[in-house]
Each structure stands twice: as structure tokens, then as C-alpha cells.
Write a structure and sequence with these properties.
Protein name: HXXEE domain-containing protein
Largest sheet: none
InterPro entries: HXXEE
Number of domains: 1
Oligomer: single chain
Helix content: over 70%
Keywords: Membrane, Transmembrane, Transmembrane helix
Pfam family, one: HXXEE
Structural class: mainly alpha
Strand content: under 5%
Order of helices and strands: HHHHHHHH
Length: about 180
């Protein structure tokens, strides 16, 4: 199957699949998050350390529209990284930015799986994290490395920049809450 995918998809197509995979995954979250939070908010707050619970409590009451607005902000970042990476693929100038986005999506799978294990139940996004994001990000890593577009050194040196997702996420959620009033 991998050999077949390699033969039909150019590397640029593989890069363009990142925003598509993101949307598939986040649609599951958008569709399920408000109802799921309404039924599980207290349970989530109980398993969190007290400081984390106080800090995250406001975002546990977002409605679907607010969450979708936050997702749209993150989609803009991922789409920007993709456009820049694809248009400069010959030089690799923006591949580090793109790699950080792939890293975030790959690591995000384990966040979803961990949440489901911790709560002992379904959590919004866990299905598409495992079925869409994990295979996509694994294949993207493989193709980027196999093509020589990135090296193992670049792959690992961009990992610390994953921490930049923290201010991006909080900004996106803040904007979602401000743009869409409850």
C-alpha cells in the first residue's frame, strides 16, 4: 500500500493532506465537544490537578460556535505552514514550520488517547486522531525523510518548537470566546 501511495502522490500532495487531515479530525471535535463537555465537565475537573482545573475551567464551557472559531484560527496557521512549505519545497525554507505542525498533530494523537484512558471513555477527537492523524503524520514523516526533503537532524531539532502551540491554542480559544458570545 505504501509503495502504491508513493507512486501516485507527489510530495506536495502529501503536504497538502495536512490541512485536510486536520479538518477531518477537528470536525469530529466540533460536532461532539459541546454535548460531551456538558455531560463530562465535572468529571474532567475532578481528574485534573487543582491549579490546572482552575486554569482550564473557562475553556471547558465553550459552545460549538466558539470552539469552531478557535479551530478556524488554528486551521489558518496549519494552512499557512502548508502553503509556505509547498511553494518553497525546492529550497525547503519553510519545512521547519511545516514539521512543527506535523509534530503537534502527531503528539496530539497521544493527548487524545491519554484523555480517553484517563477518563475511561470516549473523548471528542479520539477516533479521528487514531484513524486519520496517526496514519497521516506517520506517512508524512516517512515521505519527507525518504525524499530527502528533511533529515533526521531537522526532524528532531524542530521538536522543541512544539511548545509554541501553547500560546497559539490559548490565543485561538480566547479569540473563539471573544468572537462568538454565548
Amino acid at each position: 500500500m505504501i509503495a502504491w501511495l508513493d507512486s501516485i502522490w507527489e510530495l506536495s500532495v502529501v503536504l497538502w493532506l495536512l490541512p485536510i487531515a486536520f479538518i477531518c479530525h477537528d470536525l469530529e471535535e466540533i460536532i461532539t465537544v459541546e454535548k460531551w463537555l456538558a455531560g463530562n465537565r465535572e468529571r474532567v475537573l475532578k481528574v485534573l490537578p487543582p491549579k490546572a482545573a482552575r486554569f482550564l475551567e473557562p475553556s471547558l464551557s465553550m459552545n460549538t460556535a466558539q470552539f469552531a472559531a478557535a479551530v478556524a484560527c488554528i486551521f489558518l496557521v496549519i494552512s499557512s505552514a502548508t502553503v509556505l512549505a509547498v511553494t518553497t519545497l525546492s529550497t525547503g525554507a519553510y519545512l521547519p514550520f511545516y514539521l512543527v505542525c506535523v509534530h503537534v498533530m502527531f503528539l496530539h494523537v497521544f493527548t487524545h488517547v491519554g484523555q480517553s484512558i484517563l477518563l475511561g471513555s470516549y473523548t471528542p477527537g479520539v477516533v479521528t486522531a487514531v484513524v486519520v492523524i496517526l496514519p497521516y503524520s506517520s506517512y508524512a514523516y516517512y515521505r519527507l525523510l525518504a525524499s530527502g526533503a528533511v533529515s533526521w537532524e531537522l526532524l528532531f531539532s524542530t521538536l522543541p518548537f512544539v511548545l509554541l502551540i501553547i500560546p497559539v491554542l490559548f490565543s485561538a480559544h480566547w479569540l473563539g470566546e471573544r468572537l462568538v458570545k454565548q
